[in-house]
Amino acid sequence: MISYSNKFNEEDKKGVEKETYVAFLLYLLYLVSFFLRLPARLPFLGVIRFDLLLVAVISFFIFSTKATKGSRLDSSSKYLLAIFFYSIVTLPLVEWPGSVINNGMVAFVKGAIFYFFTVNLVVNEKRLKSVISVFVVCNLVRVLEPLALNITTGYLGSATHLGGDDFSGRLAGAPVDTINPNGLAFVIATVIPFLHYIFAPVSKKTLFIYLLLIPILLYTMGLTLSRSGVLALAIIAFGIWLKSTHKFLLLVLGVVGLAVIFMNLNEVQRDRYLSIVSDDARQSSSAAGRIDGWSADFSVAMNRPIIGHGLGTSREANWNVAGRDQVSHILWAEIWQEIGLIGLILFILYLSAMIRNFREAARLIKGRLAKDDFLYRCTQAMQVWLLMNLLFSLASYGLKSYEWYLFGGLSVVLLGAVRTRITQMEEEGAPSKSTELAPVKRKFPLARRINHQN
Questions:
Q1: What pTM was computed for the model?
Q2: Cβ–Cβ contacts within 10 Å for residue 331, how many?
Q3: What is the pLDDT of residues 384-430, one digit of tens each?
Q4: Do residues 389 and 231 lie in contact, with contact meaning Cβ atoms separated by under 8 Å?
Q5: Vertex 395, ends 404 and 184: CA angle to 5°?
Q6: Which pLDDT score is estimated for 424?
Q7: pLDDT (tens digit per residue) in 58-75
């Protein structure tokens, strides 16, 4: 959230790292608590409102440090704050202001704090590694826990209608978790790019673990019966294939893998996934219903197209306008329904800033850092994740979810870390892998007081 335009020397950087050290450790603890639902697992943590307490303490540390004084906001932060203040200013104009105050704003702040905590506390490459490690490990636990329960007890957690009086179980998150089958599929799709680009190349041992995890994750994905999850995996595979220098080999392995997977699907799973492309499958009606739902969602948005019905009111709007008791299952319709066309534009501008950060990081890295470098691999993983999540946004709500804000913050952190590394290389006289690249502009950011300015 905070930024400086002046260059920081090494002493300044060390001072910032020291000032934010305790807050950063608490942030890692918050990530663990948030993803693993520690208050649900340990009731006494729920009684003391552990997550809220952590947020309050971390915020106090951030705003009390000297590094935050005399600073300014970056463009991404401005867009997020604009959405929040826009929701306040339009309260007299929206249809359900009470819901906005009691639910919408609270949920939005819970999501947006991931951005502000990340850009203020992840101030170097080492901390970036720590955050990504905690993120991936915690989400692997979220996947493996319900799978273990399914294998040992038959746990599924959800079901889907097959037509007539028939239903089929779908694997959802563990009982203490809050994610439905599509949410569990999203978690699986999220961790795969990071396992592929960041974890697998470290050593032969990590590569073996990666090769062991992939079939487990794919099997779990099959249990979710998530069509959007399968499409997300297809996008991830396409992104990896597009970036690979071994395209033909990957194509052959992909075709063989698909054939093996399809042959091992049960009847319900085959019908479910065939319904994506076929009108003759038993579950084609539910797939068509999802498309019809998109049309209905946008019709609801057009009921109040400019201002919206109010932050956090998608479900109320759908029920009162279209008689559908659910949040819009397409991100763009959800945003339009809640904060109108003006809010949608602000959110798109925020996403555009995130995309620019990833693209700029990739541009700076090209020809300068080796392919086995952490920052290079991290950039590849985040770009593929972004591609996947843009697809998933067509099948899931997310204005108030953590992912856009955590990764928005990581885009700032990553670009800052890349600029810092390249600047250090230039100061040390390290040769670039390409001599034709333009010199790096030495802008040192914003919210992370040591790196770059959007």
A1: 0.85
A2: 23
A3: 999 888 887 877 778 888 999 999 999 999 999 999 888 888 877 65
A4: no
A5: 70
A6: 83
A7: 999 988 876 655 455 677
| pLDDT tens-digit map of 242-297 | 877 777 888 888 788 777 777 777 677 666 666 665 555 555 555 555 566 667 77
What's the number of CA atoms in the CB half-sphere (13 Å) around residue 205?
0
Of 69, 92, 102, 99, nearest in space to 3 by CA = 69
Contact 100, 313 (CB under 8 A): yes
Length of the chain: 454
